[in-house]
Amino acid sequence: MRARVKEIATEAKADGGWTKDSRAARREVEAEIRSRQPADEAAARTDAEQARRAPEKAQDAERAPERSETPAKPEDAASDYAPRPVTSVKERATRPDMVRADPAAGKWFGSRELAERFVGRKKLADTHEIVQTGRTRFEAVPKTDAAARARAQEDRARRDAIDRAAENADRFLIGDKITAHYADGEVAGEVKAHTGDGVILKKDTGGEVFVPHADMASGEVRLSGEPSPRRSTRRDAPGEGMSADRWRTICPPAATAT
Question: Facing residues of 134 across strands?
Fold first, then answer.
């Protein structure tokens, strides 16, 4: 086609210049060249790609094992057409790693009303219940775990009460501890088991102040006597001239529990 363009240009030069007919002939040839150019380029690219992949195909053919047209044994032929086990969608969905996560896991609320509202919104009333895990902390936990969570909460409350009593033992009598820290009935019962029905502290010559000590490993409260820091000439109940803060009669813990 390009030779045709040159031929038209030579004829136009011989005729003394481009005429209307020679220009039309040149435009037709140029349009034909443009229409053929994409197809020619695609064919060239295809030929180049085949030439590039020819060595790879030869190597693959060398590595490929020879296929036998007939099976070695009849049972081998039968196994080729045996049905393959199919894993259903339901089986895959019930795998442990695909089980839907607990919507209440890791969530806590500042009041029981907010926790109950969450349980109602998520429709968890049949499977979850509200457990108070702190002073202003409520969680929605599975019912199977609620009993264990409640026991753990009671154990924490007991240990905290005993710990606070031990920390302040050098400043307060055990009567103060029972009132301030052992309001919980179960904890008060545990203290009572170690103190008896009550201990009367007498503040006179040779009197002692009983101070609680806590063993955090076993959760045990024990009493030990310490010399009274003051001496009094009075040998009867606390009264005028004596420190009311240091004279106490320890009532049974159960009686002071609220």
Answer: 137
Longest dimension (CA), the chain: 151
Nearest residue to 165 via CA among 210, 123, 203: 210
**Which domain, by its residues, includes 43?**
2-49
pTM for the model stands at: 0.23
pLDDT of 184 higher than 90: no
Among the candidates 49, 65, 81, a domain finishes at 49
Instruction: Please list the alpha-helical segments (H only) found in 81-220.
Output: 89-93, 112-122, 143-167, 174-181, 185-195
Helices (H), 64-135: 74-80, 89-93, 112-122
DSSP 98: G
- Shared domain for 204 and 144, answered yes or no, is no
Q: What pLDDT is attached to residue 230?
A: 47
DSSP letter, residue 101: P
256: closest CA among 200, 181, 160?
A: 181
% the chain with pLDDT above 70: 33
Same domain (yes/no): 111, 130: yes
User: What burial letters (b/e) apply to 178-207, b meaning 16+ CB within 10 Å?
Assistant: bbebbebeebbebbbeebeeebebbbeeeb
- List beta partners, residue 137: 134
Q: How many residues does the chain have?
A: 258
Q: Name, in order, each residue with C-beta under 8 angstroms of 233's C-beta and a sequence gap of 6 or more.
A: 204
**Is residue 72 situated within a structural domain?**
no
